[in-house]
Amino acid sequence: MVNIPEKFKDAKKVFVKTTNIAAQAGHPRVYYKIKPSIGYVVCAYTNTCFILSNDADTKSDDLFVYDGD
Question: Is the pTM of the predicted complex or chain greater than 0.85?
């Protein structure tokens, strides 16, 4: 279970299967890398919390592209 800080508890949560994230939901494309030891990263533009799923491949170079809803 990932321990998300209280300030992000109300953020939109998106579960992902890779540590490599590209977010472009109504803002310039930004890239994030989730540290497996932490388990999540939050988009600074949209406050979207990307969380590694239980079956995530932390060694994969795949890129998850997030365009919003």
Answer: yes
